[in-house]
Design brief:
Strands 2, 3, 4, 5, 6, 7 and 8 form a seven-stranded mixed β-sheet that branches. Strands 1-9 form a two-stranded antiparallel sheet. With 220 residues, the chain is of the alpha+beta class. The longest helix is centred in the last third of the chain and has 18 residues. It folds into two domains: 130 residues; 42 residues, no CATH class. 12% of the residues are buried. The radius of gyration is 27 Å and the shape is elongated. The chain has three helices and nine strands; from the N terminus they run αβββββββββαα. It binds zinc ion (2 copies). One zinc ion binds next to loops.
């Protein structure tokens, strides 16, 4: 639900331009974005070079769908950050992020919960006047560069990208997951099955099975 905008009574003597600027400021602060702790007003920070803002926030983000699961659906993400004004209204972000994810084990195919963590840096630059809304800056070698508008930086897209990068290459419910029996499909974490112990390399199981049948057929 969108928060209601406040009723603003403007003094009669205000110029139209001043009134418009006050309205803009109020609406921006009360708008949907400004209620999100991951959208940060940096006006005070950019007044002076070297100023820093650091904090820790817990916030809900739009859950991220990944193959076999979702990130950040059940709990808010936690972000520890430091923003430094490095001059010319550029803001250097150092961040440490944790989020809960529900994934599917590659071996036993059961869902499991895990925590993703990421440490990253980003550089926020005011959008140049000749850059359109869709124009994106080139990254420096060290960090992703993001344009920001007005006096507001939005950390959510960086969070989304870094959570995707934090995904494990192999999703395992636990390091020693025993997986499924390649013959009968039994989840071997739960209990063993009666299939032969020396089934060998599961990738060769199909071939072994074929050879076994083929051999039998020849015998007939
Ligand atoms: Zn597993
Ligand atoms: Zn089996």
């Amino acid at each position: 639900m969108r928060p209601r905008r406040p009723v603003v009574r403007l003094p009669g003597l205000l110029t139209a331009a001043a009134a418009a600027s006050i309205m803009n400021a109020l609406c921006r602060r009360d708008g949907e974005n400004m209620t999100d702790p991951l959208v940060i007003d940096v006006e005070a920070l950019t007044q002076q070079e070297g100023r820093q803002l650091q904090g820790e926030v817990e916030a809900r983000i739009e859950p991220i769908d990944v193959p076999g699961g979702t990130i950040a659906a059940s709990e808010p993400v936690r972000l520890r950050f430091r923003l430094t004004h490095t001059g010319e209204r550029q803001l250097w972000l150092e961040a440490r992020l944790t989020a809960r994810a529900r994934l599917t084990c590659d071996r036993c195919l059961e869902p499991f919960d895990t925590v993703l963590t990421a440490e990253y840096e980003e550089l926020y630059r005011p959008r140049p006047e000749d850059a359109g809304p869709g124009d994106e800056p080139e990254d420096t070698g060290e960090a992703r560069v993001i344009y920001y508008d007005e006096d507001v930086i939005d950390l959510r897209e960086g969070i989304r990208q870094n959570l995707l990068l934090a995904m494990p290459l192999k999703q395992l419910c636990r390091d020693d997951c025993r997986g499924l029996c390649p013959h009968c499909g039994q989840n071997l974490n739960e209990h063993a099955c009666d299939c032969e112990e020396d089934a060998g390399d599961p990738r060769l199981a199909a071939l072994a099975e074929w050879l076994r049948r083929h051999g039998k057929e020849e015998e007939v």
